[in-house]
Amino acid sequence: MQEFSNITKTEWLAKVEKDLKGKPLDSLNWDVEGETFTPFWHHEDRPSNGNEVASSRDWKIGVRIPFSSIKESNSLALEALMGGANFLRFDYPGSIEPKEQEDLLTGILVDIIDYAFFDLNAEGNRAYSREDVREYLKVQAETPRPNPRIWLTITDDYFNSIAFLRAVRLCLQQINHEHGLPTDCEIGVMIKATDENADYQKIKNTSQAMAAIIGGADILIIEPSIGEDDSSFERRVARNVQNVLREEAYLHRVADPAAGSYYIEALTDTFARKIWAEFQQLVSK
Predict the structure, then answer these.
(1) Which of 76, 215, 220, 282 lies at a 20 to 30 A Cα distance from 84?
(2) Which CA distances in Å does 119 have to 60, 116, 122, 223?
(3) Continuous H helices in the chain
(4) C-alpha span between 231 and 146 (Å, rounded)
């Protein structure tokens, strides 16, 4: 059987320009992070480093437990675990006493369930965005820790969100490597309800969840689509987005769903270079 011959980028572009019937290809371009991107990508455009992003594919289904009372928070935690969650984030206003921690974890098998207590008043516990992630990188560079965990927020832009998460991991791995630490890191993604239309928010939750998982999130938390004023039904719907992506789409069984996409790899490279430059500028001040 005769194999297909390789087609160069120049040959593909000639075909594309013919199909456009005189319309210039660059009229379809758009800008991301100050750089121009085209709708056409070829393996010749792949970054030289390949952006090999090492991450665990089997992410943790997380649930945020806002503190109201010990009894109610514990009840919410047990409900989440029964619904498929395997990571509990207890948000607490200030420090928490050991006895309170013990009471919150009543009935929870802590040897197999991952959990964390977050002091909402602590600066380092916030979720970082594209605009301020350099601040976390600076902290990690100044006080390097093995296996750092960072919480991030993403936007409605599907491909940009994928690339952003991949880029942050690359930057963290580089910082740890320079300090002689293992390059492992843990990225948690928090998807919050930002739209007043609950039905539209459910759609956004799904697309953002896919972007987070494909981008390599290690922990994913999806807030109920009506925010703090939630219900058992809304909490179940939010959890089931992840259950479906795991048990029906099998996204946890793919080594790197974004690998081989020349556009995503180029976009990752752009985000990584921009974030790294901003981080270096911040450190030099």
Answers:
(1) 215
(2) 21, 10, 5, 18
(3) 9-19, 70-82, 98-104, 133-142, 158-178, 198-214, 232-247, 262-284
(4) 38
- Those residues whose C-beta lies under 8 Å from the C-beta of residue 2, and which sit 6 or more positions away, are none
Note the pTM of the prediction, 2 decimals.
0.92
Count other C-beta atoms under 10 Å from residue 16's C-beta: 14
pLDDT of residue 129: 95
Two tokens, residue 272: 């990584």
- The gap from C-alpha 238 to its chain's centroid, in whole angstroms, comes to 16
Of the candidate ranges 38-42, 147-151, 228-232, the one whose mean pLDDT is the lowest? 228-232
Domains of the chain in start order, with CATH, are 60-253 (3.20.20.240)
* Segment 155-178, tens digit of pLDDT: 999 999 999 999 999 999 999 999
Structure tokens at 200: 């539209």
For the stretch 54-87, pLDDT in tens is: 666 789 999 999 988 999 999 999 999 999 999 9
3-state SS class at 64: strand
- Reply yes or no on whether the pLDDT at 99 is more than 80: yes
- pLDDT, residue 1, reads 47
**Helices marked H in 59-157 — which ranges?**
70-82, 98-104, 133-142
Distances (CA, A) of 216 to 4, 204, 206, 211, 212: 33, 18, 16, 9, 6
